[in-house]
Amino acid sequence: MEILVCVKRVPDSAENEIEVNKDGSDIEREDLVYSVNEWDNYAVEEAIQIREKVGGSVTVVSVGDQEAEEVIRRQMAMGADKGILLSDEAFQGSDGRGIATVLKAAVEKGNYDLVLTGAQADDGAGQVGGMLAAMLDWPYASLVNVIEILDDKKIKVGREIAGGNQEMNEMDLPCVLSIQTGINEPRYVGIRGIRKVASMEIPVLGASGLGIQTDMVGSSGARVKRLDYFVRELGEGAEMLEGSTEEIVDTLVELLKSKGGIK
């Protein structure tokens, strides 16, 4: 099975104190520590596990500048077979549709049975996977936390839905799936693996190599534009209820009544 996994280089929220810049046009990016998007990491692990069960290969692809190569190499050190970097100044400022357009061109250059994305990336919008599937006219499922390969034409997927319920579906291949965290436990990437892939060639494809019209991507092609970043003002602090369980319940009920939450 040929699997393509879309990955993204993002600021590591565990290693950084994220702040908005003075004019509200972006976050402060100087000295930020970057890593692979968390959801994408689970998607790569799932792809590797599928390959280990049924054979084939795993390719990771990222849209970004040359620095995005570091996350591609990390995922190759994790166990992916190949990597592709999609990089062009024309891609800068792309909205979700623009990124999906770039990825679609990359998918069509290969012969993939399955495309995986993280359930969230693209600034938390969680939209690229669905857009990519629509552009390819392939079946799509989001928030996937179970994948079972039935044969070379069908898979069974489980997805998390409202109320903590699980929904199971059979899907035709090829298809696009957006992977939820918790589907697996991503493996540790060791120094030996990083050294192994350090000198491996990673193809770089731009707009011309992908056959993309530049007015369809980047700032000129974006239909959604970010106006500003801001940090919401903090509200009042929480009120801590004290006393026995019965006293706390009684107090909580009275508070809910006074706020109109219950009658």
Overview of this structure, please?
The chain is α/β, with parallel strands linked by helices and 263 residues long. The chain has a single domain, classed as HUPs (Rossmann fold). It has eight helices and eleven strands. It has a nine-stranded mixed sheet with strand order 9-8-7-10-6-1-4-5-11, sandwiched between helices. Strand 7 (140-149) and strand 8 form a beta hairpin. Helix 2 (69-78) packs across helix 5.
Strand order, sheet with most strands? 9-8-7-10-6-1-4-5-11
Helix and strand pattern: EEEHEHEHEHEEEEHEHHH
Quick check: average pLDDT?
91
Estimated structural class: alpha/beta
For CATH, the homologous superfamily is named as HUPs
Instruction: Please give the radius of gyration in angstroms.
Output: 22 Å
- Poorly predicted regions are none
**Proportion of β residues?**
15-25%
Head-to-tail CA distance between termini: 58 Å
CATH topology: Rossmann fold
**What is the count of structural domains?**
1
